[in-house]
Write a structure and sequence with these properties.
With about 375 residues, the chain is mainly alpha-helical. The protein folds into two domains: about 280 residues, no CATH class; about 50 residues. It is built from 17 helices and four strands. The protein is globular and about 60 Å long.
């Protein structure tokens, strides 16, 4: 019985350790950014940006392989020790940001905090070189993992999609919910980061506003796939996202290393996808693409709003036209006008404005 109590105590303690509150993450993140700023000032460090040092430092807590060093770069050898000494001096826990996996957001959902900063690291570091690490370190790399999860399954594209959706996508152990949210939010938050703000404040504001999937998916899609802005066609989504995925050289290398492609001497020169895995590749990408499509809500006026605005504009133009017509009659009565009077500049402007508005709202 005593052993049972000890086991329960350890289990409960582990749950509490893994249940990272949003408030604690924000506090530790704020301290971390403050300490890194102090480090850069004391050391006159200018080789990389503040943002790079923050995201790379956190990423190293869970993603420190050689491949990730290539994708995310490195940090100064003495930075980790500097932050540790600051924690000791101030009684803080900024170092803990490297260990946070499941962060509880204000709405109760969880995301993989370290994964999110690793994605940010890959995106910001890639922009300095190739500019195209974003799919690899984020949604594309996780989609490739989803492809590996179903590569030994049998069936057509639709049946493979069903397996992927019900057994692997957004489910713990594969391309799970925490990874998905981290992929999306990393892109959105990094896009908002600049020298005049900090991650702690950005996250507080963002997670207070973003409460539903549609809000984050919409922002992510419009940042990541500009050609899909305002579009609501499932096939178009599939085609655009499939092309981005299959054109990415780094993802091809991942697929080659997983046995989905043959190497041409080396996997860094991969052959086309093996024929038997072509349906699996489409199924994995389509599952992710359909998720984006189903939750994308363009922030453009509805057709009804556009028609209503058009009608209001027409009414305004009609009123202006009537006023001009009355003015012309007044001039004729006073002997100042004739049937051959040229339209006034204002009249020409109104006529042109009317034509512009009509053409704008597609009434021709």
């Amino acid at each position: 019985m005593k052993i049972l109590y000890i086991f329960l105590f350890i289990s409960i303690s582990c749950i509490k350790l893994n249940d990272i509150t949003f408030e604690k993450v924000i506090t530790d993140l704020g301290n971390l950014e403050s300490y890194i700023k102090e480090y850069m000032k004391e050391k006159s460090y200018s080789q990389t940006s503040l943002t790079h040092l923050i995201v790379a430092y956190i990423r190293l807590g869970g993603y420190s392989t050689k491949e990730w060093t290539i994708a995310g770069g490195s940090i100064p050898d003495d930075l980790a020790e500097y932050i540790k000494s600051k924690d000791t001096e101030k009684g803080t826990t900024a170092q803990a940001t490297q260990t946070y996996r499941d962060m509880v957001m204000p709405n109760g959902d969880k995301l993989d905090f370290v994964h999110m900063f690793a994605v940010m690291n890959g995106i910001e570091y890639g922009k300095s070189y190739s500019g195209n690490y974003a799919p690899l370190v984020g949604w594309g790399g996780d989609t490739e993992q989803l492809l590996e999860d179903i590569m030994n399954q049998q069936g057509d594209i639709e049946s493979l999609m069903e397996i992927a959706k019900t057994q692997y996508f957004r489910i713990k152990g594969g391309f799970d919910e925490g990874d998905l949210i981290a992929d999306l939010d990393a892109t959105i938050l990094l896009n908002q980061k600049n020298d005049d703000n900090n991650f702690a404040d950005l996250m507080k504001e963002y997670y207070t506003k973003v409460q539903i999937e549609e809000e984050r998916v919409t922002q992510f899609v419009e940042l990541s796939f500009p050609s899909l802005i305002g579009q609501k066609d499932k096939e178009l989504f599939r085609n655009v996202i499939f092309k981005v995925y299959t054109d990415d050289m780094f993802i091809k290398v991942l697929e080659c290393k997983a046995g989905l492609r043959d190497p041409r001497l080396t996997c860094y020169i991969p052959e086309p996808i093996k024929e038997q895995y072509a349906p699996h590749q489409k199924a994995a990408v389509y599952v992710v693409s359909d998720y984006f499509f189903e939750n994308y809500n363009p922030s453009t006026p509805s057709e009804e709003e556009e028609e209503s605005e058009s009608r209001e504009d027409e009414k305004e133009d009609e009123k202006e036209g009537e006023k001009e017509h009355e003015k012309e009659h007044e001039k004729e009565d006073e002997g100042e006008g004739s049937d051959t009077t040229e339209p006034t500049d204002d009249s020409k402007f109104l006529n042109n404005k009317f034509l512009y508005l009509v053409s704008l709202f597609g009434l021709f």
